[in-house]
Write a structure and sequence with these properties.
Layout: H1 7-23, H2 32-44, H3 63-75, H4 85-97, H5 100-111, E1 117-120, E2 136-139, E3 143-150, E4 161-167, E5 178-184, E6 190-194, E7 205-215, E8 219-220, H6 226-240, H7 242-262, E9 264-265, E10 268-269, H8 274-302, H9 311-333, H10 345-350, H11 361-367, H12 378-389, H13 398-408
Parallel strand pairs: 1-4
Antiparallel strand pairs: 2-3, 3-7, 4-5, 5-8, 6-7, 9-10
Helix pairs in contact: 1-3, 3-7, 4-5, 4-6, 6-9, 7-8, 7-9, 8-9, 9-11, 9-12
Length: 409
């Protein structure tokens, strides 16, 4: 894509910058209601669902405009929209696979944060091998009955609706007997249990279904074609929302630069150390690589195309980068990276709310290992890149090799 700023782009950036300078929250958004209010304000300004169809509340904006908004949000440390699963994953999947009635019913309420969504894919024995899922959807005439268990479901405890994969035909090859559904999370038969992580947070949840109901009109896509729907969903999850990650990383980097200038190491600032500056410079370069790679995904969306297997390159890159970035932060901060209280006076005075607070960076470091696992492990992304992007042959399975060797004898 052409990344040269036009006169229109320059004028748009100025308007966006002025809006955020006038409207950015000056205090922490500590409750879900406060975050929803900020989200709605972003929507009313035209900064939510920018690439979505206009008839459902979107702007059908060019990728450059979306990039400008992400840049300006990062520049002024603006809070992100509330819970990105609806915006970044569920909504685009409904846009591509939903009926007109489904789009009319659900999309606008995602944009306005009236309804929060979760993604119900992984199971205790079906994570990386998602096609082995066992949650069942049984045809009960005018509706479906759902029974089974999901796990690692982000923010299920506050979700109103979920995008669910369930087995509808156990007699066929496992990829072919799966369907996708839109399920009401606020009904009898749905039990959500938060899981406590090493970070202390509990946004991951187990979800149990006991004869939970899904109306027939809430089948998403054709019956037994849920795997195809899944590929669209995972494509968006792996690539299309990474500009928001770029914004978060850049905020974190700017804060780290400020702190390193005030943190004293051997009678001089950490920033005075050339190795520290080298780490900061490398992080900046890698964030820029991620930003421009994200624009490629936006270009596909602008042309009406779905994210392809190339999105696995982006997912592999940002998940591995996050580990490197947070490890570098811990090296720069030293023991101060893991404490909440007892901060040196000059650092405590410079402390700000939002992304990049000292004391939560240690938690972020622990969290940085998760992206290499969720939405397909790094190993799975490498397989996808090798097979579907580079056209390399699949690695032969050892059991097949051993079988052929036995037959040859």
């Amino acid at each position: 894509m052409d990344l040269t700023y036009s006169a229109e782009d320059i004028a748009y950036r100025q308007r966006v910058r002025q809006w955020f300078e006038a409207n950015r929250p000056t205090a922490d958004l500590n409750t879900l209601d406060e975050r929803k209010a900020w989200h709605r304000k972003l929507f009313e300004a035209g900064f939510i669902g920018m690439d979505w169809p206009k008839e459902y509340g979107g702007q059908e904006a060019r990728p450059m405009k979306q990039a400008i908004v992400a840049d300006e949000m990062g520049r002024c440390n603006a809070p992100s929209p509330v819970i990105g699963l609806g915006l970044g994953i569920v909504g685009p999947t409904i846009v591509h696979h939903g009926t007109h009635a489904q789009k009319a019913r659900y999309l606008r309420k995602i944009l306005t944060a009236e309804e929060i969504w979760c993604q119900l894919f992984s199971e205790p024995n079906a994570g990386s091998d998602l096609a082995s899922l066992r949650t069942r959807a049984e045809d009960a005439g005018d509706h479906w009955l759902i029974n089974g268990q999901k796990v690692w479901t982000s923010n299920a405890y506050i979700a109103d609706w979920g995008l669910l994969l369930a087995r509808t035909d156990p007699s066929v090859v496992k990829y072919q007997g799966i369907s996708a559904f839109l399920i009401n999370m606020r009904q009898a038969g749905v039990e959500v249990r938060p899981l406590k992580k090493i970070t202390g947070g509990s946004e991951f949840c187990e979800v149990f279904f006991s004869n939970a109901r899904v109306e027939k009109e809430n089948l998403l896509g054709p019956l037994n074609q849920g795997w195809q729907v899944t590929q669209t969903t995972l494509g968006f999850e792996r690539g299309s929302e990474t500009l928001n990650l770029v914004m978060a990383y850049m905020i974190l980097l700017r804060r780290l630069v400020e702190v390193s200038k005030q943190l004293k190491v051997n009678d001089h600032s950490a920033f005075a150390d050339p190795l520290t500056r080298q780490k900061l410079g490398r992080a900046y370069v890698e964030i820029e690589v991620l930003r421009y790679s994200s624009l490629r995904i936006l270009t596909r969306l602008e042309k009406g195309e779905r994210p392809g297997p190339e999105s696995s390159i982006l997912k592999l890159y940002y998940s591995e980068f996050e580990k490197r970035f947070l490890a570098a932060i811990m090296e720069i901060l030293g023991p101060y990276g893991g404490i909440v209280e007892g901060m040196p006076h000059e650092l405590a005075e410079s402390e700000r709310s939002g992304y990049g607070r000292i004391g939560v960076w240690g938690i972020d470091f622990l969290q940085s290992f998760a992206p290499t696992i969720y939405v397909g492990t790094s190993e799975i992304q490498k397989n996808i890149i090798g097979e579907r992007v580079l056209g390399l042959p699949k690695e032969p399975r050892m059991d097949r090799i051993e079988m052929k060797a036995a037959q040859s004898k």
